[in-house]
Structure formats: structure tokens, C-alpha cells
Amino acid sequence: MSSTRRVVKSPGRAFVWPLLAVPVAVMLAACSKQDPAQAGGQAPPPPEVGVVTATVQTVPVVTELPGRTEASRVAQVRARAAGILVERRFTEGSDVKAGQVLFRIDPAPYEATLASARAQLARAEASLTQARAQAQRYEPLVKANAISQQDYIDAVASAKAAEADVAAAQAAVQTANINFGYATVTSPISGRIGRALVTEGALVGQGEATQLAVVQQIDPVYVNFTQPVADVTRLRQAIAAGKFKSVGGAVPVRVVLDDGSVYPTAGKLLFSDLTVDETTGQITLRAEVPNPKGALLPGMYVRVRLEQASASDAILVPQQAVTRSNQGDTVLVVGNDGKFAPRPVKIAGGRDGQWVVLEGLAAGDKIMVDGFQKLRGVTAVKPVPWNPAASQPAGAAPGAAASAAPASAASAAK
């Protein structure tokens, strides 16, 4: 087989170069650019993505707000009698009952005062008996002119004065008895008592009512939280426009703890303050939550899920299906032809790991939930029912924004 040769002349010698390698390289390059179908192969099928089908339903509109817990009743235990504290009769941090003895102050001075008052009462009662007897004896004598009228008047006046002395002595006994009772300090309410603020041997109540301890009732517990007044206004406007329906009766409240867990017992909204804070533009609300096991302690930071209304034409969408940004919230909707496109939506808070969508979707729409990483370089996908158990963590999907704070229901109703 002969091949084309190129002769290169140089002084005293000639070189021959084979030209066969050049067309072969060109052919290989051309073959590498052929379409897979022309080369006898097949185009790859569209990737499978998990979708959920939109269903219109009535959904409670829940707003999540920050709050703090507070004891429903707080009583400061103070010493109303002056003296030396001789005994503490409770365990710090324990539950106490109303009327339970907590402290004892040295009662000896008050016992003596009470005994003296009782003696004065006995003396006054004896004087009264004598004065009344004399007045009764003088009464027939003055009628018989055996004594002067003045003597009889003096006897009656002495009896009246003796009655007054008895009343004063009785008041003194009552006062001494009250002070003697103050030497025994009891709990004014039932609740949990904290640490003792004084120790045995301390002089208390000298000049002022010394605080000895604090008792707090934490069953039920109060939760105080705030809400922007603008959200409240928009919520009322949405209810008036028919977008939302107000919740009748007691408004249910759920408490979310620091670790994200939901407190098992639901509470109820007690009141909403009428005054708006001038510096923050927020109003204060209070909820009452049962706390039989004492799991909620005063001062804890919690989040409150407040069901203020319900939406009758809402759609629930998994949180990882929604992309949240400053420009708005969007989802990817897959059509019957497999093509997908972003669609803006309006969200009204969250519920059980899902967003409540009020606008932007219709019944039957297929919303992409999983498989976002497969969309690069494709224009169509194959929708399959989403399997939550097999899905990736919410943080792995571009559309997952579960970590974002839930939007308020009032903001979504704009």
C-alpha cells in the first residue's frame, strides 16, 4: 500500500513525512460530534422528580409569635411581725399549699403581750360588773329620795365608762392575738416556693416587712407575647373581605419550646391588650396554658402558635417545595407535558411542616417537592408521587426554606 509522502529538502539530506495521521484525526473528531441517535444510540429519558397534587381545603391560619412564660400568681412572703427568725419549715423549690407554715418568728414577746392584754380585759370586766351593780342598787333609792339624783347619775356614768374600758381591753386582746399569729408565717397561695431569702437567727420585720421567700403558682402558666398591630389590622381586613373566617369561641394556642418540640397541652387566648406600644408598634397578648407537671417555668422563652382565623380555599404545600426570598415566594409547577415553570404564591403561615398557600395555585396542580438537583440541562421531567420518607433533608434542596420563620397570616392576606 502506497501513501502520499512529503519530501522536505535540506542541505545534504531529504526527509519523507507520512500524511496519514491528519485525516484520521479529523474523522475521529467528526464522529465524536455526531448525534447519539445518528450513532445508533437513544436519548436519555427525562429525570423523575417527586411532586404533590394540590388539593383545596379549609385550613387554620396559624401565626407564630415570640413570647415568655409567667407565673399565673405570685405572692411575696413577708414578715409582718418583728423578731428573730427561729425556724424554716419548708424545702426550697418544693410545692406548698395555701396556709402551710413556712417560717416561725420567736413568739415569746407576743405571748407576753397577749397575756397582758387578757389580764387588762379581766380587770375591765370586773370593774364593769361592780359599776353595773352599783347603778342597779341606786335606781330604787333615787326613786325613794334616799340618795341624791347626782349620786345616781354618777353611778350610771361609771357603768358606761366601765363598758368602754371592756371594749378597749377586748380590742387590745384581739390586736395582741393578731400579732402573735404573725409570728407564724404561712403561705398565702398554693404554688412552688423558691429559695429562702433569710436564714434562721436573722432579725426580721424591724421597721419594714422583710421579704422571706416568693411563692409562684405555675399551673396554669401565663404566656405573654406580642404581635405587630399592622398584622392585626390586615387580619381583620381579610376577615371583613371574606378571605378568612374568624375563629369562634376560645382561640387555641400552642407553645413551641426552645428545641422545636411542641408542648403537648394546648392553651387558650385570655386577652389582647387595647394599647399599642409607641416604640415598637406592637400589642401584647396573653395566653393561659395548663402546666400540671411544671414543665413550663416562669421566664422561659417560647414561641406561640396562635390560630386566629381559618382559610376555606387554601392548599397545603411541603415547606421544602417553596423558595422564599425578598422578591416573594415561588414553587415549581410541572405541567402535563412534563415541562416545569416557577409560579409565585402567597403564603399564610405554616402548619406541621407545610406552608398554607392562599393564592397562586389551583386544585390539580403538580408541585415539585424533590429532585431539584436533576433539573440542570433539562427542559422536561417525569413527575412521580412524592415519597417523604425517601426525600432528602430539607436543607439539601434549593427550594427548601423550612428554616425560615413562618410568615404571619396577616401579612399573607395583603
From TrEMBL:
The signal peptide stretch is 1-21
Origin: domain of life: Bacteria
Classify the main location: other
Instruction: Show where the Multidrug resistance protein MdtA-like barrel-sandwich hybrid domain sits.
Output: 73-216
Which Gene Ontology molecular function entries are recorded, alphabetically?
transmembrane transporter activity
The family line of this record is: Belongs to the membrane fusion protein (MFP) (TC 8.A.1) family.
Which PANTHER family does this UniProt record tie to the protein? ACRA/E-RELATED COMPONENT OF DRUG EFFLUX TRANSPORTER, MULTIDRUG EFFLUX PUMP SUBUNIT ACRA-RELATED
- Which UniProt keyword terms apply here? Signal
Q: Where in the cell is it found?
A: Cell envelope
Q: What is this protein called?
A: Membrane fusion protein
Sequence ranges assigned to domain Multidrug resistance protein MdtA-like beta-barrel in this UniProt record = 220-308
Q: Where is the Multidrug resistance protein MdtA-like C-terminal permuted SH3 domain?
A: 313-374
Q: What PROSITE patterns does this protein map onto? A: PROKAR_LIPOPROTEIN
In Gene Ontology terms, what is a biological process of this protein? response to antibiotic
Region listing for Disordered, in residue ranges: 389-414
Q: List the Pfam families hit by this protein, alphabetically.
A: Beta-barrel_RND (PF25944), BSH_RND (PF25917), HH_MFP_RND (PF25876), RND-MFP_C (PF25967)
